[in-house]
Specification:
The protein has 198 residues and is an alpha/beta fold. It has helices spanning 106-109, 132-142, 167-186; strands at 6-8, 16-24, 29-32, 37-39, 44-53, 58-67, 80-89, 92-102, 119-126, 149-154, 157-164. The strands form 2 sheets. Strands 1, 3, 4, 6, 9, 10 and 11 form a 7-stranded mixed beta sheet that branches. Strands 2-5-7-8 form a 4-stranded mixed beta sheet.
């Protein structure tokens, strides 16, 4: 959990980047639950998240993007958000995807993309006990969502996506899914991190 949102400012055409590499040893468990990343209009952001799990390791994490400063009425009309995520177990790829959103581009409004919603998020859970009950728990939590979302079970990994009109709404959805999946993925009750109260 990070104490504040990541902010990607207008960069006069120059790109900024962040690369996070997480390596978990045998039997380790890690949660990666950062606050949202806000892409200001004109930002050029490139972000990479790479997770490498040893045998028996478990990971539960999310990524939340807000395109534009919504509270001040700003939309993401120019710039670029580029993102790559991947999860490996013992060097074998479980899941990888790339996302490239161009400010003002067609994908932002397309029903095959963000459908006009300025906030998008993904939650990933991987662990030795991954199975259909993880997806069932996630779908039950999504059933009361305020926006579109879905859960997909891949071999060894759960992927959940959701869209919304505000970071608050999407964070609530992610938190509901996290609370439903955490006991299954990590064997721990859903205890919200104390940093959220600061």
């Amino acid at each position: 959990m990070t104490p504040g949102a990541a902010k990607w400012y207008k960069a006069a055409g120059r790109a900024a980047g962040q690369q996070v590499e997480l390596r978990l040893g045998s039997g380790a468990a890690l949660e990666w639950l950062p606050q949202e990343a806000i892409a200001f209009d004109g930002a050029r952001a490139h972000q990479v998240l790479a997770v490498d799990l040893a045998a028996g390791a478990a990971f539960l994490g999310w990524d939340l993007w807000c395109l534009g400063r919504l509270a001040s009425g700003e939309r993401f009309r120019s710039g670029l958000v580029s993102q790559r995520c991947e999860v490996r177990r013992e060097g074998r790829l479980l899941w990888r995807e790339g996302l490239e959103l161009e400010g003002g581009g067609r994908l932002l409004a397309s029903p095959l993309g963000l459908a006009g919603r300025p906030v998008c998020a993904a939650l990933v859970a991987a662990g030795p006990g991954a199975g259909p009950e993880w997806a069932e728990a996630a779908r039950a939590a999504l059933a009361s969502s305020d926006g579109p979302g879905g859960a997909t079970m891949l071999p060894g990994l759960l992927l959940v996506r959701c869209l919304g009109d505000s970071t608050e709404v999407v964070r609530r959805v992610l938190t509901r899914v996290w609370a439903a999946v955490r006991p299954l993925a990590l064997g721990r009750h859903a205890q919200p991190p104390r940093i959220r109260n600061t």
